[in-house]
Every structure is written in C-alpha cells, then in structure tokens.
Design a protein that fits this description.
single chain; mainly alpha; two-stranded antiparallel ribbon; 19 helices; globular
C-alpha cells in the first residue's frame, strides 16, 4: 500500500532558515547552549544536504556499506570500534530511508519481515530476556535487525533504483580498490591467512563474499535486461573476487542461482545462444583448475575443497550452546539480541573461532523468538517475496525467487540477516522492487 505525500522541500528549507535566524538570539540569551546549537546546525545541514541529494547520498552510503568498514575500524582503532561502526551504518540507512519517506512518500509494507523482528522483540520484553541481556541491548538489536529492510517502507523514484543497482554491482571492486590502498599504505593486508590465502580487501573475506553474492545478483539482473559487454565484464570480475575470498557457501549459491537462471529466465537481450556460448567458454577453465589444484592449495577455496570439503569451519562447536538455549525457551525465545549473549566473547570457543555468532539464522531466530517467532519470520518472508515479486517483469520475478531460495539455504550456515552485507542485499532487492513496480505503473525509466 502506497501513502502519497507532498514534496516538503520548501517546508524543510523554511524550518532550517528559521533555526539559523533564531540561533544568534538564543545564543545571546543562553550562551551555554551555543555549542549544542552549533552542533545541531551542522546536523541539520547534513540532513538538508541528504534530503536535497538523496540518490547520490544513498549510493555513497551503499558503497561504504559494501566495503564493510567495521573490520578495518576494528583493526585500525581497536575491537571496541567494531559494533559502533555497524550501528552507525545501520543508523544511517534508517535516516536515509526516513528522508526518502519524507520526500517521496511512505509505503506500508504489510508483510515485510521487519514486522517479525518487532513482534519477537515485544514478546521477549514481556516474557523475559536472556540472563545478561538488558532491555536497552534488546531494543538496539530490534532496531538493528529491522534496519536492512528500511528502504522497503518508502517509495523512491526509478532513477534511485537504477543508481542503487549499479552501485551494488560495483561494491566488490570498490572494496578491493580501497583495500589495495590500505595495503600499499601498510595499514592492513589485502589477503589474510585463514586455511589458505583469502582476499579480505577492507573487511573480512566472509563479508566481502556476501557483498560479492549481491553484486553477482545485480550483474544477473543487468545481464538479462541489457546484455551489455560491460555488464558481463563486471560480472566476471565479481566472480573472480568471490573465488579469491575462499568462501565456499556464497560461491555455491551464486553458482546455483546463475545456473538455474540460465535455464529458467528468458531474455531477448541475453538469448539462449549467448547462454550456450557462456557455458562453453567456462568449460575449458575447469580442467586446468583441477590439474592445478595442488598448486592452488595456497588459495583457501582450493585448500578446503581438496583437503576438508565437509568442514563446517567450527560451526559444530557453536551450535550446541544455541540449541541448549533454544530448548530452555522453546515457544517465544529469549528476546531479540539473545544471539549475541549465548557465547561470551571471552570464552574459549569464541577465542578459538574468532566469533560468537550462531552462523545459522534458523537457530539464532529460534533462540531469540522461539518456534513461534521463527515460524512468523519464515511465513512473512514467503508471503512478502511471493506478493512483491508478482508485479515484476517475468524475468525479474523468477530471478528474485531463485535468489531467496538460495538465501533460505544459505541461512543454515551463515549470518545472512544480521551482518552488514545483508544491508547490501536488501538494498538491491528494494531497488529491484521499485524499478519493477514503476514499470508496472507505466513510469518511463
């Protein structure tokens, strides 16, 4: 449901002008308020700039999110900077979505999965939180869990959607470029050693892989819509970056989505003959990779595939603690945010694996929302994807559904809802919905 609103640009400018006009008077009468008022003026100026240039500011935000700066902040500043950086990224998304809603209109997205997090959060606050989890912590987690879905509650124009889709496709290259600068400046390495060499760029290989997955999806949308050579080259670049991250699950799901889309998605811009040529061009690459697998063992992906393909990277040590917590509160769970409190950050397991997250969203959601909360979230996801994709062009609709089928599988072994790459994925999905719905209304792009 769309709720139209007027463009309030003139009102915003008038309010800002009144604030600046009253600033000297208030400062004269109450000098102690001068600095807070000046800081408020700076914040107001930033909001006005964002309001006036929403599309480029949203693109800039997306590129910053795409380089996953929280890991670099942790390395350069200290571990205490990790969570605040994530919080700042998600808070910026909420602010930008609010500005989009103010300028372009509000959408009441009835089946959005964010409603499930609000319901689970309310149930946890009423029924009781996990020991050590405060109400303030839970509220912050509720906001953080809903933040990736913020853009679905506004109705930005089609040019915003096109810019965001292009930005998603360029995020991995931007991350590698900034990571190379950091490496040359001797601030942090471009590759890290984790079971073999892994491309980390600015962030962590797993985070970069998650961003690559969204970028590959963006490339597929562009390929089936336009089929330009530049889009194919960028898609190949994102594939290469994904391989160098050494992340097996994202690589597998990217391959499954792309393979299924070649069969199920029809496109005049990328016809069957071109798809066959693409497949034939990829076949000669496989034998050299297999023959060189021993030489490529230094690259983490080939190391893991050749020596321990069934390894879950330590997840089997994390899951028992979450399973026990879920069993102790089976119906409504322990409240949103409990997933961060199950395994203490200073515990032997966390120190060994360098994580205390569940790496299984179904298990984490069961801990936080119980069986009822998890069922509600899955139901909303299914209804939301089905209903919102029905108005899209056939090719986009099929690709969206393939993406979320892969997303459902990926959720068994990774943090696909709470990590910052989720913001990139859902920004892409929001842009695809905006573009498709605009086309359905006959809007000229």
């Amino acid at each position: 449901m769309l709720v139209p609103v007027r463009d309030e640009t003139a009102t915003v400018h008038a309010a800002a002008g009144l604030y600046l006009a009253l600033l000297p008077i208030v400062a004269l009468w109450m000098p102690a308020l001068l600095w807070p008022l000046l800081l408020g003026a700076l914040g107001l100026g930033a909001l006005i700039l964002g309001y006036a240039r929403l599309t480029p500011i949203c693109v800039l935000w997306l590129l910053i999110v795409g380089i996953t700066p929280e890991m670099a902040a942790s390395d350069l500043i200290g571990p205490e900077a990790f969570q605040p950086t994530i919080a700042a990224v998600k808070a910026a998304e909420i602010v930008l979505a609010g500005l989009c809603a103010l300028r372009y209109g509000v959408r009441l997205d009835a089946f959005n999965p964010a409603w499930a997090f609000l319901a689970m959060g309310a149930a946890g606050l009423v029924s009781g939180l996990y020991p050590g989890l405060t109400q303030a912590d839970s509220v912050r987690s509720i906001v953080g869990s809903a933040a990736p879905f913020a853009f679905f509650f506004c109705r930005p124009p089609p040019n915003w959607a096109s810019a965001m889709i292009r930005a998603v496709a360029w995020c991995p290259s931007a991350s590698v470029a900034v990571g190379l600068i950091f490496s040359l400046a001797d601030l942090r390495p471009l590759f890290i050693d984790s079971g073999g060499a892994r491309l980390a760029a600015v962030g962590h290989p797993a985070f970069l892989a998650g961003v690559c997955l969204s970028a590959i999806y963006a490339g597929l949308f562009a390929l089936y819509r336009d089929g330009r050579r530049g889009d194919r080259l960028l898609l190949a670049t994102n594939w290469l970056i994904l391989v160098l991250t050494g992340a097996r699950a994202p690589l597998m799901y990217a391959a499954l989505v792309m393979g299924a889309s070649l069969i199920l998605v029809r496109s005049s811009a990328f016809p069957a003959r071109s798809r066959l040529l693409l497949g034939l061009a990829a076949l000669p690459v496989l034998p050299p990779l297999l023959l060189a697998s021993e030489d490529l063992a230094a690259v983490r992906l080939f190391n893991m595939l050749s020596t321990d393909a069934g390894n879950l990277s330590g997840r089997e040590f994390l899951w028992p603690a979450f399973e026990q917590a879920a069993a102790e509160a089976p119906w409504f769970g322990w409240g949103v945010g409990a997933g961060n409190a199950i395994i203490p950050p200073d515990s032997p397991i966390a120190m060994l694996l360098h994580t205390w997250a569940a790496h299984n969203e179904y298990l984490r959601i069961q801990v936080e929302g119980g069986e009822i909360g998890r069922a509600l979230l899955i139901l909303l996801f299914a209804l939301w994807v089905w209903l919102r994709s029905r108005v899209l062009p056939v090719g986009d609709s099929r690709l969206i559904r393939l993406i979320f089928m892969a997303f459902a599988g990926h959720a068994f072994t990774d943090n696909v809802l709470i990590s910052t790459p989720a913001c990139v994925l859902f920004a892409l999905i929001a842009a695809i919905f905006v573009r498709g719905e605009a086309e359905a209304r006959g809007t000229r792009l």
